[in-house]
Amino acid sequence: MNSNLLSLLALLAPAVFIIMAIVSYFQTGLRPTFMKRGSIVAATFSIIIAALSTFFVFRFGLLQSNLLGLNGIGLSIRLDALSVLMSAMIALLGFIVVRFSCNYLDGDKRQGIFMGRLAATIASVQLLVLAGNLGLILIAWILTSLSLHRLLVFYPERPRAVIAARKKFIIARLGDICLLGAIILLYHQFGTGNLEVIFKSVQTIDLGNTNLELAAVLIALAAILKSAQFPTHGWLVEVMETPTPVSALLHAGLLNAGPFLVTRMAFVMNGTTYAPVVLIIFGGFTALFASVVFLTQPSVKTALGYSSVAHMGFMLLVCGLGVYAAAMLHLVAHSFYKAHAFLSSGSVIDVVRAAKVTLPKRLGSPVRIGGSILLAFGIYVGFSMLWGIDPIAEMALLATGAIVIMGLSQIIAPALDSSGGIKGTLRACLLALMVATAFFTLEDGTNYLLQSQLPELAQPGLIVTLLIGIVLFAYSVVVFIQIIAPTRPSSYFWRAMGVHFRNGWYANALFDRIVRSLYFKSSYATPPFQHQQIVGERKVEPKILSDNNI
């Protein structure tokens, strides 16, 4: 079969969405019937194309189209295990979000325009995951940001949405500059933008190559900026005034561009020293920070925003450890979970059900808490031995599994250290076993599917090994505090800490000052003391409120 023809067939998926984006300019009004039906047809067609692409890759292996460009850089399509996995996920999520949008914005006079912008965003993400050349990667990377920006400012009369979009726009341009710099260095080093040529050539270059090291660091920074990592995460939790389908598509799809870029360039990242360190530091800290802040949020959508920040951080951390298969497994699982979470966040039934859940009283027994931790550790060791993981050669995989298994102690401890009885404890232990089985089994399966597109797991160097120890220690301390906290009486110190964590330790306020978002905020609202009240014929200057006269 013609490799060029088969790979170009995948372009039909983004092509139909681009057509719908163009049609949206002519489908305005309260009932854009053709636009709604056409979007559903395009989303359905995208699923069919993704299925066909998966079959072609399974049947023929790697497929690439001819280059449309000059001197080895330009536009080309690449179909491999990684691209078809991402294409299938995007197609399914796109279909769900499009169907939801048809009802969610029904009656809005700009629904047709919204559907068109949504189609353009989905098309840009599909082009990114199908790109086979550095030129198309850069173009699609920028298009995803620009198309998302148009969705974030869909309601321009909402000041907070506009401010958050501006902050995101600034960060995105910094990420674009980082990616452009990386592409220039890679092109200078290899003389081509063809990904397959780069991946094969990079394995023959000596470690410590300056161009390669700097390019990998810039790729890591681009991913960090794209995926809302600390301290540039604030915009993500401030865009909740956009329509719910935008939040679902953003958190389930567009944020994944960071981990995907790192995984796509895994052969480049794997041959460097400093880029994995950058990913581990930023990703590890962000995952820990955002997960704690998430627990203190009273707003459902804000909590989901911090949850996404934490998940992105964990994915980048895992990429820094070199366990790319586990990162992709997490990416796919998180995407479907977060899309469902946002699209169902307004369900009153779920809130009522959650309000009726009663938990058994915690006993606070050190023996039971210690036993739950030992039981979780025993499950972890048992599965590691069962899967035959080499603790020296596969240290990074063990570290990733250890972080996941830490969650098992949070499942077992509340049940074992409570007055709920043996039945609840057995259920918790069974759930922990299912989680451990799912992780090790699915990670092994994902590694098998993607092994041709990912480098072999390498033994970490001294710096990465030290960072692994620091990460595991920090995560263990936080998990332990979380387990024992419900058994201890509340104190002023922890209540104050809760307030600080709820405000994200004011990192977003600091970032507001840097990008002058506070200036934009003041332009949308006039301070109270600038207004005047008219009483009869006399002007009365209102007093400035203080703590003494409130």
**Nearest-angstrom radius of gyration?**
25 Å
Please list the strands of the largest sheet in the order they lie side by side: 1-4
Bulk shape: globular
Strand count, sense and barrel status of the largest sheet are: 2 strands, antiparallel
**Structural category:** mainly alpha
User: What string, H for helix and E for strand, traces the elements in order?
Assistant: HHHEEEEHHHHHHHHHHHHHHHHHHHHEE
Describe this structure in words.
- The protein has helices at 3-9, 12-23, 33-60, 81-104, 111-130, 134-152, 159-190, 195-202, 210-226, 244-252, 257-264, 266-270, 274-294, 300-321, 324-343, 348-355, 366-386, 395-416, 422-450, 462-484, 492-502, 507-515, 517-524, and strands at 63-64, 68-70, 73-75, 78-79, 533-535, 538-540.
- It has 550 residues and is an all-alpha fold.
- Among the domains are: 1-132; 362-508, no CATH class.
- The chain has a two-stranded antiparallel sheet with strand order 1-4. Strands 2-3 form a two-stranded antiparallel sheet.
- The chain is globular, with a radius of gyration of 25 Å.
- The chain starts with a helix and ends in a 10-residue tail after the last strand.
Quick structural summary:
By secondary structure, the protein is mainly α. The chain has helices at 3-9, 12-23, 33-60, 81-104, 111-130, 134-152, 159-190, 195-202, 210-226, 244-252, 257-264, 266-270, 274-294, 300-321, 324-343, 348-355, 366-386, 395-416, 422-450, 462-484, 492-502, 507-515, 517-524, and strands at residues 63-64, 68-70, 73-75, 78-79, 533-535, 538-540. The longest helix is centred in the first third of the chain and has 32 residues, at 159-190.
